[in-house]
Amino acid sequence: MSEEKILKLKRAYTEVIWMAMRYANGRSTYAPSMVRDSIKEFQEVFPDWTPKNDPTLKSDRESGYVAPAGLDSDWLDDLVDQ
Asked: CB–CB of 65/27 below 8 Å?
């Protein structure tokens, strides 16, 4: 695969994953773990890649919302620089 195509794929993933992170953040579903797994697999191929910063990603403690069965892993704020 050409370097140009690789860069296009990286840009496409970067543009899609931030919205997936926003959707999954704080959900008590499979969504947070699916996003984490996707990022982990992507970083196995591109170890220098990191998700772009998204200041809207906050933990339950920061947002003031505490779900009854919420887990720390439901929140994705640890994946980005704050």
From this structure: no
Is the confidence at residue 82, as pLDDT, over 80?
Answer: no
How far CA 18 is from CA of 11, 23, 32, 66, 69, in Å, comes to 11, 9, 12, 23, 25
User: What crossing angle do the helices spanning 31-45 and 3-24 adopt, rounded to 10°?
Assistant: 160
Question: CA-to-CA distance for 78 and 82, rounded, in angstroms?
Answer: 8
pLDDT band at 35 (very low <50, low <70, confident <90, very high): very high
Cα–Cα distances in Å, from 60 out to 19, 27, 28, 39, 77? 18, 10, 12, 21, 10
Q: What is the rounded CA–CA span in Å between residue 31 and residue 45?
A: 22
